[in-house]
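Bumping my old thread because nobody answered last time. Still need a sequence for this structure:
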């Protein structure tokens, strides 16, 4: 699981090497190929964010650097130069770091101060409580690049046109387009804004013309061409800055070889409630609350904690390596040391991990003259204070520095809601999926659960108002807008009508009757 978590980690805007590692971080970064490495020895002549130029045996070699490229996970890939002008370099030396490497070592996360304790129920069930410092100081801020593409085809009615002249659209929707109808570089784009203006020709009946078009046609005999607006718009939830636009025109464009326009938008994302974080021991969790710094628990020297994890997530999963990492990270942070320890080092002697951690904590306590770092009564733990009241917590708490990653599962990509929207043509039920503004599925087992609780009214609205009862959902929408009581659904939902039609195709006629609650008279209803 830990390997999967590191595979899903997002490169941060400011990466940091881990205090406690395995020693394989450098080799992993080297094998990934994201770093620029000197193939010959020489001297640096010039360096900037785009290239590094050095001389070697009279030859001048230029190495281009990657700048703001999009990865397959929509993250931002770039290279940072590590050498300065005038310095001599050796063969195999690292010239530039990648987005997730520092000094040639893999750097996917941040070393943050963590505590293992319950806090008002906000970290139950693997939830994580974090400090607002991680937001305001851009500790877990990442950049993401999304690609949006549109094609201009040649239809049977004529070619589609990329243009800014789109009728019946408000001016503020076209404010970011240039004269060609393509969004300008550097524009700030919000959800619903037009990225590329496009018109698709279509034939129209006389009745579909606008009144002014019919007048022009009747008086002057001008044939007004009709076109459907099929522009590329930024979907819901998207926002950011346009960093690149590519217009790919191929010779002899046809329906099989259309021209394409790609728009790349960069987005800055701070950590927020709903994002997923994880350590390197499979200890993953969702951010449940962001607390102000003064309310976070704080150490005896006044340092507020950055993250609060649930201690119940450790014993049942038996990943106690995170406790060793946490304590050793605290010692390394105070002593300004980095540790590279192979996993499963108990083969050297019994309790080797515990002895190493306690000895380093003892050294840190002596050098910093902070007795709370290592207390013999409860080594690795410390008495800490409640930030809201200033009182000591009843029990000593496990504190330390852990290497925590921000994962690609982010709330901006997953949050979704629907009041009303599109429905499937045959079943008249809401569509599924976030991309189609769909609803949440109430399946067979969910219905069983509701039936087990006997919630008749919730069941009725799940299977009628919120699903495929056409008349009832229209009445609900009207009552919501105007006000008033929502009437009970009287006739059958569309799924029952569909069943009746299918039975008719098998030459079976099914009659259904409505029994009134008041007089119990049977009234026949046509499906």
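Sorry it took so long. Here it is:
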């Amino acid at each position: 699981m830990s390997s999967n978590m590191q595979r899903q980690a997002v490169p941060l805007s400011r990466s940091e090497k881990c205090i406690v590692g395995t020693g394989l971080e450098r080799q992993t970064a080297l094998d990934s190929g994201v770093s620029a490495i000197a193939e010959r020895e020489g001297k640096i002549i010039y360096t900037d964010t785009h290239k590094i130029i050095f001389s070697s045996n009279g030859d001048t070699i230029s190495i281009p650097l990657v700048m703001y490229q999009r990865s397959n996970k929509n993250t931002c890939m770039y290279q940072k130069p590590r050498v300065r002008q005038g310095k001599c370099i050796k063969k195999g030396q690292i010239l530039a770091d990648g987005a997730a490497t520092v000094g040639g070592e893999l750097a996917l996360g941040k070393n943050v101060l963590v505590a293992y304790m319950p806090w008002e129920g906000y970290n139950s069930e693997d939830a994580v409580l974090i400090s607002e410092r991680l937001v305001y100081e851009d500790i877990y801020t990442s950049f993401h690049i999304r690609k949006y593409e549109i094609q201009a085809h040649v239809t049977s009615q004529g070619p589609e046109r990329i243009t800014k002249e789109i009728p019946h659209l408000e001016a503020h929707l076209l404010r970011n387009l240039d004269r060609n109808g393509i969004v300008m570089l550097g524009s700030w784009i919000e959800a619903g804004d037009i990225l590329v203006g496009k018109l698709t020709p279509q034939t129209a009946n006389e009745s579909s013309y606008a009144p002014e078009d019919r007048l022009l046609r009747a008086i002057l005999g001008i044939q007004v061409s009709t076109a459907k607006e099929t522009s590329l718009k930024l979907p819901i939830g998207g926002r950011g800055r346009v960093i690149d636009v590519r217009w790919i025109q191929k010779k002899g464009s046809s329906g099989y070889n259309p021209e394409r326009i790609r728009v790349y938008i960069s987005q800055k994302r701070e950590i927020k409630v709903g994002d997923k974080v994880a350590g390197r021991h499979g200890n993953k969790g969702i951010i449940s609350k962001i607390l102000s710094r003064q309310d976070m628990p704080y150490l005896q020297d006044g340092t507020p904690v950055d993250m609060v994890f649930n201690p119940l997530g450790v014993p049942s999963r038996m990943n106690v390596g995170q406790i060793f990492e946490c304590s050793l990270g605290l010692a390394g942070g105070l002593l300004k040391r980095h540790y590279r320890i192979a996993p499963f080092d108990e083969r050297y002697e019994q309790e080797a991990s515990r002895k190493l951690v306690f000895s380093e904590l003892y050294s840190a306590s002596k050098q910093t003259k902070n007795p709370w770092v290592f207390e013999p009564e409860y080594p690795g733990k410390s008495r800490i204070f409640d930030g809201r009241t200033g009182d000591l917590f009843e029990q000593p708490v496990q504190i330390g520095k852990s290497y925590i990653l921000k994962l690609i599962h982010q709330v901006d990509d997953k949050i979704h809601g629907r009041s009303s929207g599109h429905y499937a043509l045959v079943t008249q039920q809401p569509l599924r999926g976030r991309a189609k503004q769909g609803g949440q599925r109430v399946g067979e087992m969910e219905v069983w659960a509701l039936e087990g609780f006997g919630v008749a009214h919730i069941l009725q609205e799940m299977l009628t108002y919120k699903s495929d009862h056409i008349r009832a959902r229209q009445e609900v929408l009207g009552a919501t807008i105007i006000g008033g009581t929502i009437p009970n659904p009287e006739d059958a939902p569309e799924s029952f009508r569909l069943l009746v039609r299918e039975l008719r195709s098998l030459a079976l006629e099914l009659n259904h009757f409505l029994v009134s609650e008041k007089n119990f008279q049977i009234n026949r209803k046509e499906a």
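The longest strand covers residues 142-152. Let me know if any region looks off to you.
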